[in-house]
């Protein structure tokens, strides 16, 4: 929990004169080599993105965090008070069954990652949001859930296929 990325690990241990000899040494940078993000090593599948942290009553500070490629959160627009509160969230897939009576019960699945949550080991999870109640699955449980849903979908299809053809409009 104490190794959250900071902005200054890769440079500045050498005096300016030594830099001349090192200009040709390749450093970690984006493929385009044009962004202004600090040159620190980022895990494969992640990129450094700016994040705004601080109370809403203060200007806050921008720091760079590792963000998985699938994350769709704008960490500047979606500010957190503390860096430990920053989490990553993927695109949502939604199944929405709307009963004529009662509330709509949406079912959403998306990837999520809470870097500061010790029990997740910094690993992404599959979050399943059933009407705002969120369950978090590791790979094995998520695959079992997927199998269950495929079986359910096959039941739906099997029953649907027994229905009479509808007249074309
Ligand atoms: Zn993110």
TrEMBL record:
Protein name per Swiss-Prot or TrEMBL: DUF6907 domain-containing protein
Pfam families in the record: DUF6907
Species the sequence originates in: Streptomyces ardesiacus
Superkingdom assignment: Bacteria
């Amino acid at each position: 929990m104490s190794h959250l990325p900071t902005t200054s690990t890769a440079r500045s241990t050498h005096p300016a004169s030594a830099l001349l000899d090192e200009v040709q040494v390749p450093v970690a940078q984006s493929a385009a080599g044009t962004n202004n993000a600090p040159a620190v090593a980022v895990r494969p599948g992640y990129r450094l993105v700016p994040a705004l942290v601080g109370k809403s009553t203060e200007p806050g500070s921008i720091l760079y965090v590792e963000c998985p490629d699938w994350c769709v959160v704008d960490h500047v627009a979606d500010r957190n008070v503390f860096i430990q509160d920053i989490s990553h969230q993927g695109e949502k897939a939604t199944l929405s069954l709307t009963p004529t009576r009662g509330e709509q019960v949406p079912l959403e699945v998306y990837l999520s990652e809470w870097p500061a949550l010790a029990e997740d080991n910094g690993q992404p999870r599959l979050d399943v949001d059933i009407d705002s109640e969120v369950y978090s699955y590791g790979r094995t449980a998520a695959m079992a859930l997927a199998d269950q849903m495929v079986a359910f979908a096959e039941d739906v299809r099997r029953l649907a296929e027994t229905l009479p053809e509808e007249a074309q409009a």
